[in-house]
Amino acid sequence: MIVNTCGFIDAAVEESLDAIGEALAKNGKVIVTGCLGAREKTIKEAHPSVLAITGPHDTPAVMKAVHEHLSRPHDPYTDLIGVKLTPPHYAYLKIAEGCNHRCTFCIIPSMRGDLVSRPIGEVMQEAENLVKAGVKELLVISQDTSAYGVDVKYRTGFWQGRPVKTKMTELCKSLGELGAWVRLHYVYPYPHVDEVIPLMASGKILPYLDVPFQHASARILRLMKRPASAEKVLERLRAWREVCPGITVRSTFIVGFPGETEQEFSQLLSFLQEAQLDRVGCFAYSPVDGAAANALPGPVPDEVKESRRERFMALQQKISEGKLKRKVGRTIRVLVDEPGVGRSSADAPEIDGVVRFNGGGPGEFRDVTIDRADEHDLYGRLQ
Length: 383
Ligand code: SF4
Description:
The protein is α/β, with parallel strands linked by helices and 383 residues long. The chain has helices spanning 10-27, 40-46, 59-69, 76-81, 108-112, 120-132, 168-175, 197-201, 218-224, 230-243, 262-275, 302-325, and strands spanning 2-5, 31-34, 52-53, 90-94, 96-97, 116-117, 137-141, 156-159, 162-165, 181-184, 208-210, 248-255, 279-284, 331-338, 341-343, 355-356, 365-373, 378-382. It starts with a strand and ends with a strand.
């Protein structure tokens, strides 16, 4: 079993170590890759029996370890496209590695370096191969998807003999021609993100935007070295919804950042109430080794951080519940992950809710009429 890990913040490290433990208990043969792979000692101390540990973005090392430790079964998908670690009907499409930002809570740039965009021709070829191999949903990922091409000055590449710029908007237009669902993740809120919203409205790519806002207080955002102000974000959300009323916006936030006052936290709650985001993740700040934010004054006590996280999530839960209830009675298209479970345009795999019903086969697109909702999932009938 291959476990892809994250070492982004301490909570993620814990989660990754738990995932490795679970995989060992289930399977016994485990290869660890991803961000946390750069911290070999931490993994070896917790789980000495893992077969191999590779660093992030090191597909050849993963494949070498697989071939060394496990017999290689024939797999038409793997043979065709290299490595494939997800179910056959969806796939992650990595478009770049590294990041030019220096958010003070994050150590990814020191682990992975500055942004390096993959050539657009290569990305599009991979996407095309995946769709030809039966993939129905492409999940576009990188550390900073909206920065795609900045490092190569938006160089023009070629796909199917025609010029295409190494730029998020052009990538989205081209991906939209493949006939698969296209979902954007980790979209840093640059102004040009607005350009992809019409593509969502016209159905070229999924009306889903995963855009981490992290906080709403201007002072905390400055300390985090993040852009934008809460008012601007609210204005942009309004504009996005005007252009694409069906858009699902997912975001993540950090509470208990060093120096965060009760008043700044309340500001965040008011923002959340007003923003009415569809999907939200919230982390209590944890000081990752090597992060610049650790040197900031005013660490927030753990119990305060935890209570803020709980208050934040309680409010968001009400918002999500209300938003999901409004879908009752509608018929929505889902991609079936397994019989009885599918995802709509509003649900990314692993991180969002699901739609439950009877029947359906993996990889099928089906229409489901929604009968009821809880705070995470929808329940309905196949049409
Ligand atoms: S944008 Fe910020 S949080 Fe995201 S990878 Fe870059 S430095 Fe880290």
